[in-house]
Amino acid sequence: MHDTGSPSSLIQPELIRLGCQPADKEAAIRLAGQLLADAGCIDPAYIDSLLRREAVANTFLGNGLAIPHGMVEDRQLIRRTGIAIVQIPDGLEWNPGQRTRLLFAIAAQSDEHITLLRRLTRLLQDEVRLEQLFNARDAAQVQALLEETPPAAAGEAAAADLAERAQWIVDYPNGLHARPAAQWVEAARRHAAQLQVRHGQDAADAKNLISLLQLGLRHGDTVTVSAQGPDDAAALAALLSAMRDASAQEQTDAALAAQKAQLLAAQQGWIPPGHPLSIAGVAASPGLAIGVVRVLHAGQLKVPDRPVALGEGGDRLHEALSATRAELSELAAATASRLGKAEAGIFHAQAELLSDTDLITLTCQLMVGGHGVEWAWHQAVERMAERLAALGNPLLAARAADLRDVGRRVLRQLDPALNSATLADIDGDDCILLAADLTPSDTATLDTGRIRALATAQGGPTSHTAILARTLGLPALVAGGPALLDIADGTPAILDGVGGRLYLNPGEQDLASARDWLQTQQRTQQQQAEQRQRPAITPDGHRVEIAANINRPDQVAAALDAGAEGVGLMRTEFLFLEREQSPSEDEQFHTYSAMLDALDGRPLIVRALDIGGDKQVDYLKLPAEENPFLGMRGSRLLLRRRDLLEPQLRALYRAARSGQPLSIMFPMITSLKEITRLKGWCEGIRRELDAPAVPLGIMVEVPAAALLADQLAEYVDFFSIGTNDLTQYTLAMDRQHPELAAEADSLHPAVLRLIQHTVAGAARHQRWVGVCGGIAGDPFGAALLTGLGVAELSMSPRDVAAVKAKLCANGHDRLRELAQQALACDSADEVRMLARELT
Ligand code: PEP
Ligand code: MG
After folding, report:
1. Which of 551, 571, 573, 730 is the best mutation target for the ligand 1 pocket, counting ligand atoms within 8 Å of the beta carbon and taking the most?
2. Phi and psi for 279 in degrees, rounded to 5?
3. Strands 82-95 and 16-17
4. Residue 43 above 50 pLDDT?
5. What residues are labeled active site?
6. How remote is the CA of residue 116 from the centroid of ligand 1, in Å?
7. Which residues have a Cβ under 8 Å from the Cβ of 76 and sit 6 or more positions away?
8. Quick check: 442 pLDDT over 70?
9. What's the whole-model pTM score?
């Protein structure tokens, strides 16, 4: 939006009346209208148009300001654009509960009045200046207060530098993006002086984040920084030092990115020769997919246009903005304490976007134009984001993503229902589905005939969505950030589920290389697949059991065909999801029996219900918890909900009467007390049903269980380590956290040490240890676990062939040595680099 009217031509002393006391709203509007008519701006008939508008819309803007304006269809009654200002120091009731002290009657032929509207919206937030305006004694003072130069609007280049100036060369490897820009703004705003940053012909107000970002500064650009005003020398020095201070952080970030690339090479991932633009996320499900992007985002959200009175709309917008600011500041504080100040900066930067004058003005204008607040806000955000995205600069495109992200936060505040999008909207073939996040049930029901890969802005690699993607064989990345959702629908892309990147608009060379890579992969997979039925025995004769993580009897045949030797984890909570009520004891009995029958004598380990965390079951009406992963989850819930535990155990023991090899294990065990109570339940039910004893194990998912493994082992028959949860609880990183996902790596040496401790504890009582978390299905992870002494690995069936191939190719002694090396590493990345040392 550009200012098209010169401020001084709009605010004229003869159109200002001070100290008025009109009897009512109509008298006030007539007075303002008369001023406009007397000055030759309107035909007197337009005064009625001003009054008619009041009958259909509320022109109260908030904080004592009202902006009466005529009906659009009466525009021919306007002779020239003008604005009449009527000051009512004692205030006048405009609508019940709304008092106007200053009214601006607008007669606008086109959009010249936008300059004034922009100032008014800024004024709404500036109580000191408002008070001065309400009490001004002469027209010149009103004029001066209103004409104070606004910040340079986006896109308005000011080529001249200010009085004090200096040059600086941008040394941020990724150019100027939101986080350092917000630091510049913060430093600039501490000073009264006007501060400007100029690059070539383009200049930006250093106190305005969007205007700075629109400069699109890249590494190596020279900028002229200048200041003017009372403390200009100090202001200039402070801004320059903020610019330099951000350099170190920017360079560290870039170095980390380079390290990641090295890591990718170690993992033998695909590296595109043409360096197409890409978005980085976290690898969640391996494979490469070539396709076109289909975005499932709030842009497809139908934001309804529900006009409300302007005042009410303004109040709701104000509240939503405040609530979002509070939400962002909480997020920033939480991020600062978890990750550090620099990482929290992005949320400060997002909060800055909320105060952007252009954005708020545009929203107010759309509301004044008769639109509903949600619609107006959404439109304003989309228009500004499109403008940023259209500049063709990836950095600014990412800012557009931030703007949309923050825009959605505000929309959610305005109407919580404006938060969803539906998979049914996705059509076409060879789709690479992009979404903010997907629920496990969304993922489970994806049409894999058309959807080739998926990428989510949020989520983590061990979230259940990622697990399901692996099961479905869909390459996936998670935690790609909000920029993902700003990619245009239909953009050709390549998704790399090993490197965790989405490459956009790949060139012919990239496509050819991706096809080659896929072919090589297919050949390797084919070779591995041909040998998938062999046991996993290392060349020096050490055997590891390979089992599948599956949940339904109809998946057994495929799992066995994939080379699985049994089922190491049947997540029974999936029997409880996506339905209206819990499955009955009989229904469960039939499912477990069918599972055993399909396995035909091979082992089945059924995990008792693990509800809670990210697996919520609405009909159970469990109380909402502040920290569901730390709350009533898994066995903790089972011990409190006999109605869930008892039918499940009865169904399991009834199935065990067939004599087939069934084991039961309990999730989220933290203490011996839980084990003894659960075993008590099992024994009671077993006796009642006269069923055989079955092996009872526990999942080791909490550091407490790993640390006490030597004690717990005495009471259970086996351990199965749930590395997905063990990782999140060891590292204190939510397995679904979008920003922490990359670090929440199960190969973290701290997690490996807990696994080693568990194996050692179990060995004291001759118990076996399995791993059924995601890392068991990563061939390199499986090799390390074998080196640590894990005896059984349970994984998604599609991972079986590759894991077997890795174990069959590397000697147990070598794996043991490698595991010792991994235990001595200081980071998961360092552990992953060891992958180079295996065949
Ligand atoms: C785990 O935590 O590693 C595990 C296998 O359980 P789930 O992923 O179902 O929580
Ligand atoms: Mg778990």
Report:
1. 571
2. -115, 130
3. parallel
4. yes
5. 69, 177, 464, 772
6. 58
7. none
8. no
9. 0.57
